[in-house]
Design brief:
183 residues; elongated; mainly alpha
Length: 183
């Protein structure tokens, strides 16, 4: 099973101008927020990259996972030259970790934690009662996490949990049927 078989959001490799403008152009409020919390040009660029990609994906990615067209679009808007080396350093910096927390607060999204995991597992169990296809079960999990404003985990986590919960649900159903059968 691949992420492309589900509703799990992924970055496209190419965009038209309208998509870049609609999805990856910071609003005046976002620029103001960035100006308040970020020091330094390379940090500003990194911040805008993770803000805009997180808004689109629901999870954080590193700069090496972002297509060049998004880099070019943000660099043109912000009049900042693209410095890939500085972004590599930003990706592993304490500043980025701080910015991730600030972005979560700004967007009112919670980190995928034990409460989110519990919520996800219950949604997957409920979905497995009415759905057989793994992609459909995963999509219910994604929808639930988004509804309750949680950051999405890695796709592998969703896939593993969907398989486990579907198997557990099936075992419970099969056991119930078996126990009702007479000799």
């Amino acid at each position: 099973m691949l992420a492309s078989d589900t509703a799990y959001p992924r970055l496209k490799t190419s965009f038209n101008a309208g998509e870049l403008e609609r999805w990856y152009s910071p609003t005046p409020e976002e620029c103001e927020f960035c100006a308040k919390v970020v020091r330094g040009q390379s940090n500003r660029f990194g911040f805008l990259l993770i803000l805009k990609t997180f808004q689109r994906l629901g999870y954080f990615v590193t700069s090496d996972q972002i297509p060049d067209s998004i880099f070019a679009h943000l660099a043109e808007i912000d009049k900042i030259p693209i410095d890939r080396e500085a972004l590599k350093h930003y990706d592993v910096s304490r500043s980025r970790k701080t910015h991730v927390g600030l972005i979560r607060s700004y967007l009112n999204v919670s980190q995928f934690d034990s409460a989110a995991h519990k919520l996800l597992c219950q949604a997957l169990v409920d979905a497995a009662l009415t759905k057989d296809d793994l992609a459909d079960i995963i999509n219910v999990g994604i929808e639930t996490l988004v509804k309750y404003r949680y950051e999405l985990p890695a796709f592998g986590t969703l896939l593993r949990q969907a398989k486990e919960q579907r198997t557990a649900t099936y075992r419970t159903l099969f056991r119930g049927v078996y126990e009702r059968l007479n000799e």
